[in-house]
C-alpha cells in the first residue's frame, strides 16, 4: 500500500512529542525538548573562569609570599573567597545535572525536587 500524497496546501504531521511528566505543561506552540539545556555551556564557563581565577590567585600568592615576602590579611581573604567560589561552582554544577538551566516544562517531576534541594543548599551558602 502506498502512502497518500500531500496536497500542496497540506503540511506533514508534527513530529511525535516526548512525554515528560513535568510540573507545568509547555506553552502553546512549544514542544517538550529535554535536550535543549545549557549544561555544556555552563560547565565550560565555570571551568574557564575558575581556571583563570586560580591562576591569578596562585600568581598573587607566589608574588606576595616569595618576592615581596609580605603575605597580608587581604591575601588570606582572597584565598577564603576563592574557596567559597569553588563551593558555589560545585553547587551550581550539581544543580545543572539535576535540571536547573532548562525550561521548567522540560524537567521531569522526579528530578525537579533534587534540583531545588541543590539550589537551596547554594542559597543557604550565600
From TrEMBL:
Pfam families: Fung_rhodopsin. Residues 59-123 form the Rhodopsin domain. Keywords: Membrane, Transmembrane, Transmembrane helix. The keyword Glycoprotein does not apply. Residues 1-17 have a biased composition (Pro residues). InterPro entries: Rhodopsin_dom_fungi. The chain crosses the membrane at residues 43-63, 75-96. Residues 1-37 are annotated as: Disordered. This is Rhodopsin domain-containing protein.
Amino acid at each position: 500500500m502506498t502512502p497518500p500524497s500531500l496536497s500542496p496546501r497540506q503540511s506533514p504531521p508534527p513530529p511525535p512529542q516526548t512525554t515528560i511528566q513535568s510540573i507545568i505543561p509547555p506553552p502553546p506552540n512549544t514542544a517538550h525538548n529535554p535536550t535543549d539545556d545549557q549544561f555544556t555551556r555552563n560547565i565550560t564557563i565555570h571551568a574557564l573562569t575558575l581556571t583563570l581565577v586560580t591562576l591569578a590567585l596562585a600568581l598573587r600568592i607566589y608574588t606576595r609570599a616569595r618576592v615581596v615576602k609580605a603575605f597580608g590579611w587581604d591575601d588570606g581573604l582572597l584565598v577564603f573567597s576563592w574557596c567559597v567560589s569553588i563551593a558555589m561552582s560545585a553547587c551550581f554544577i550539581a544543580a545543572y545535572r539535576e535540571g536547573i538551566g532548562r525550561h521548567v516544562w522540560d524537567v521531569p517531576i522526579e528530578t525537579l525536587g533534587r534540583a531545588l534541594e541543590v539550589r537551596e543548599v547554594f542559597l543557604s551558602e550565600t
